[in-house]
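Final report, section 2: Outcomes. Of the targets proposed, SDR family oxidoreductase is the one most frequently requested by collaborating groups, and we therefore present its record in full.
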Amino acid sequence: MKILITGTTGYIAKRLALQLLEDKHELICCVRDINRIPDEIAEHPLCSFIKIDFLSPEPNKIPKDIDVAYYLIHSMATDADDFEDLERQCAQNFKNLVEATDCEQVIYLSGIVNDDSLSKHLKSRLQVEETLKSEKYALTTFRAGIIVGSGSASFEIIRDIVEKLPVMITPKWLNTKTQPLGIRDVLTYLSGALGKEALYNNSYDIFGPEILTYKEMLLQFAEVRGLKRYIYTLPVLTPKLSSYWLYFVTSTSFQLAQALVDSMKVEVIGKPSDINNHISIQPMTYKKAVDLAFQRIQQNSVISSWKDAVSSGVFKDQLSKHIELPQYGCFKDVRSKTIIDEEFTLNQIWGIGGRNGWYSFNTLWKLRGYVDKLFGGVGLRRGRTHDTYLEAGDPLDFWRVLFADKKEKRLLLFAEMKLPGEAWLEFKIVKDKLYQRAVFRPKGVWGRLYWYMVLPFHAFVFKGMINALVEPK
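The predicted structure is given below as C-alpha cells.
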C-alpha cells in the first residue's frame, strides 16, 4: 500500500513508520522541517518525504494516489491558549487535502473519552475526531489511554518518580483508575487496521488487560525495578500544586505537567468491543510493558521519546532557520585547541550531556539546571535519548540539537533554558583544530546583565570542557 503518515518525528509515528516499512509498504512522510527527518528512515528506498505544515499547507502537496493516511498530530505540551482551535484547524486542513486524493481510509489515534468530565486535551481529541469524519474516505479511530513504552511521557515520568523517591507524599489523583497499554500493542492496532473494511467509519477503545490506579502503576513499576516504595496520598494538593509537584520531581515541562494533571483527574476506562477479533492481539500486562521498555533502554535502542518534541514557545518556525550562528549584536566565547586524536574528540562531542555530563564542573551545570527549573524551564533532567547518537531535533539536557553531522564534524546546540536572550553552543573540527563557540544574543538590558554575571564562570567551565574534548585522560 501507499501510505501517508503525519507527525513523522513524533513518538508514535517514528516507530509506526519503521514497522510499516518492515511490512514493505511505501511511505509518504510529512515533516514540517526537512532537516528533522529521522536517520532510521531517511535513506529507506520505500520512504519519501513532504515538507508541509498542516496549519498553513500548500495545495496539491500530497500525492493523489495514496491508499491510507495516518493522522498522528497532537501536542499536550503546548501552552497556547487557543490550542483547541489550532488542532481543529490542523485537522480540517489535513482533511481538505486528503479528500482531494484517492485515499480510502484515514486512521487516527485519539484518547479514551468515556468520562463525563473530560480534560480540555481529551475534549480537543474528540473534536479532532469529529472534524476528520468525511464522506470521501472512511475514518478508523483508536482511542488509547496511558501508553507505556521506552521514551513515552507516562513511562519516563513514572520512572523519575519511582527511582528518585523512596517515600512519596502524593496528590489524590493517584487513586484515579486507568488501563495502560504497551506501545507494541498500540503499533499492532495501528498497523493491523490497514485496509480492513470492517473497521471503516468506526471508533474503538484500545486498552490493556488490567484496570490500575496510578498508585498501583507506581508500585508495580517499583516491583519490576526491584525497589521498595511507600506512597501516601493527600486530598489537599490542588491541580496547580500538583502540577508544580510533578514538574519539580520529574523531567517534564510545566506545560506538560499541567496537561497531565488535568487528564489524570479523569478515569480512563475503555469500552469493550470486538476489535481484538478483527486484529489478532492479546494486549500485554503493565508489568510486561515496563519490562520490555527497560530491555530497549538497556540495549540503547530507544527509537523515539516524548522529549523529541520541540519545547513550546522556543521555536515558532523551523529548526533549520537557526543552524547558522548569528554574527552581530552578540556576545561570544570562542576557543580553539589542536586535537590529538580526531576519533576520540568526535566521540567525546557526540557523547556530551546526559549521563556523561559536560566533562567540566558538572556541579555548576547541575546548579544551572536547578535554577532553570525554578524559573519554569526544562532543566537538565531531560538528558538525551541515546548515549552516543545525536540527530537534529534531539533533546540534550536543556539544549536542542540543531545540527549534528559527524562527516562534517559539526554539532550545533540551541538553548531551551529560560534566558533573557538566545544562546547557541557549537563544536566544529577544521583540519587539526577543534573550535568551540558559545554565542549569546541578549534581549534588552537584562540580557546584557546576564552575560556579564555568568562571564566569570566561562573562563574555567568552557576551558575545562574543550580540554576534556581533546585530551584523553
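The chain is about 35% helix and 20% strand.
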